[in-house]
Amino acid sequence: MHYFRKILHFAKPYWGYALLNVLFNIGYALFSALAFVSFIPMLDVLFQQTKTLRARPVFEGAGSLKDFVQDTLNYHVSSLLESDPSKTLMLVIGLVLTLFLLKNLSNYFALYFITYLRNGLLMDLRNALYRKIISLPVAFFTEKRKGDLMARMASDVIEIQNSFLSILELIIREPLTIFFTLLVMFNISVKLTLFVLVFIPVSGILISFIGKQLRRKSAYVQKEQGHLLSIIDETVNGQKIIKTFNAGPLFIKRFGISTQRFFKFSNALLHRNNLSAPMSEFLGIAIIGVLLWYGGRMVLIEQNLDGTTFIVYMGLAYNILTPAKGISKALFSIRKGDAAAARVLEILDTENTLKDKPDALEKNTLEQQIDFKKVCFAYPGGPSIINDFNLTLKKGETVALVGQSGSGKTTIANLLNRFYDITSGSLTIDGIALQDIKKTALYQMTGIVTQEPILFNDTVANNLRVGKQDATDAELIEAAKVAHAHEFILQLPEGYQTAIGENGNKLSGGQKQRLSIARAVLKNPQILILDEATSALDTASEQWVQKALENLMANRTSLVIAHRLSTIQKADKILVLEQGRVIEEGTHETLLKKGKTYTNLVKLQQL
Fold first, then answer.
1. What is the C-alpha separation between 133 and 140, in angstroms, rounded?
2. How far apart are the C-alpha atoms of 388 and 383, rounded to whole Å?
3. Residue 378 β-bridge partners
4. What span, in angstroms and rounded, lies between the C-alpha atoms of 291 and 199?
5. Are residues 264 and 175 in the same domain?
6. To pair with 181 at 20 to 30 A between CA atoms, which of 124, 209, 258, 585?
């Protein structure tokens, strides 16, 4: 319940529905008890045991309320019996039907209003999770499996939703049903009711003993479900590699191991869960059996309880056992919901290490330059990747980073985008530390084209509008022309309104990259980051796109990462990196004259 209580604040906007649910649950509990009591006059009529009263009863105070109600009922029933027994029976049956109708109407409206509460909580919780995931830094997603995140947002949230209904039943409906029923039972026989109350706690202790391990076993199941989804996600995304490397048997084995663990954990959980129902039923029947023995003695031997009242009393006793079993089921459900809540809250409570400072600046224009001074960076617990990196990138300049894979080029771009914070040194824009600038303002200044095109399962037009949602159709077309994408877009089945599939899988690699470039062109950023932007293009497309990029980079501050050195020959400055350090710096011509690492890289690509 510790974690589940934290989830309850998501129900605050729906307190009105909760109140209506409580009111109708009170009605359900009250009419549930009265419905059984209404059988007494009907049975008395059937067995001709109605006490005949000639004078109307007089109310003599709260202490005699039970006798007053019973005598009043007997007075009216006996009066009607003398005139029309058939009409009397119909009226008594009508009373029974009316009370059961009110009971079930109350039950329907209680469930009707809780539906808004449960689904509203589900909606708000998922929205909160999604907002949190959007706000978390990139580093978080390198540590978490995608499938596990999907499981938490899907199955875990639904488990919480189902448990929420259980907790309201546990707090309101079932206890009130037991309370009102016990009031009536005490009015019928204090001695017999006290006898019943001795056995109910015993059954409750036995049931709660089973439920103690449910939360732990449920957590195992939910965690393994997340692992299963991760394997499925990797399998779908890695089909080409799996098939090419004949790795199908390996992945089948991995999946089989995971499903075997899921099978084991699910069995343990369901065995515990399934034990609750038969145990509750057996304990209930045991209590009924004891009642039949003890109550039968009161009717047949002691003769201080009449038969019709005892029959109704047995119905009332059963009316207690049903909500008692409901409470036991609710406890099991809440145990499972608490485990799911713990997994959801782990995401919601994750600290964002890249939060804006309270006094962060709304700086969204680059006026002078970007400065890296003795910048060092290392992932938590890992070796240093960037070491004493220095760079001054003036407004309007184009600086290229080259070097072998793993030299730190992309990491520099990630630091400029503040996907990570530097470990030491300083990184400033116009003398203002990157950490002192609001991230939304920083991202308004920057645009990026990544090595692997990142597109979304939407139309071409909506993918282009990601960075500028109010762009006109004319602006879309102009940006696409600059990126040499307009021609192939027109050839798609629905042009700019064509859905391109997950990650743009309906397009070729070159087409996807040109859409990524067009998206950056449309945003028109002040700081442009090109991370291997032409790596997926064929030679002909590369020439067109390179011209477009040159036009795009004109009078714009650009940081270009390139393996194809032919694309950066016009850069104002080229930095050669090796193991996170700058080992050469200069223009294309000056670096060639030095005849060192850069020259060797150029010669290798000319072979």
1. 9
2. 14
3. 384
4. 10
5. yes
6. 209
Instruction: Give the angle subtended at the CA of 480 by the CAs of 477 and 481, to the nearest 5°.
Output: 85
CA distance 272 to 209: 10
Q: Does residue 384 share a domain with residue 330?
A: no
Do 332 and 373 belong together in one domain?
A: no
For the stretch 28-48, pLDDT in tens is 888 887 777 666 655 554 455
Split into its structural domains, the chain has a count of 2
* Segments of 525-605 assigned E as strands: 527-531, 557-561, 573-578, 581-586
Range 277-288 burial, b when 16+ CB lie within 10 A, else e = eebbeebbeebb
Tokens standing for residue 563: 């393996």
Query: Among all chains, which residue has been given the structure tokens 């005892």?
Result: 310
Q: How far apart are CA 365 and CA 437, in angstroms?
A: 11
Say if strands 581-586 and 432-433 run parallel, antiparallel, or are unpaired: unpaired
One domain for residues 332 and 472 = no
Strand-pair category, 573-578 with 398-403: parallel
Token readout for 270 is 């369901």
Closest CA to 164 of 207, 119, 110: 119
Q: What is the DSSP secondary-structure string of 451-481?
A: SS----SSBHHHHHTTS-TT--HHHHHHHHH
Domain ranges, residue 473: 369-606
Q: What is the CATH number of the domain that holds 558?
A: 3.40.50.300
SS3 state of residue 534: coil
Do 282 and 383 belong together in one domain?
A: no
Q: How confident is the model at residue 293 (pLDDT cuts 50, 70, 90)?
A: confident
- Per DSSP bridges, beta strands 398-403 and 557-561 are parallel
Q: Which of 314, 348, 382 is the last residue of a domain?
A: 348
Best CA proximity match to 480, nearest among 450, 521, 448, 529: 521
Q: What CATH number does residue 38 fall under?
A: 1.20.1560.10
Q: Name the CA radius of gyration of the chain, rounded.
A: 37
Beta bridge partners of 403: 577
- Quick: pLDDT tens for 119-131: 888 888 888 888 8
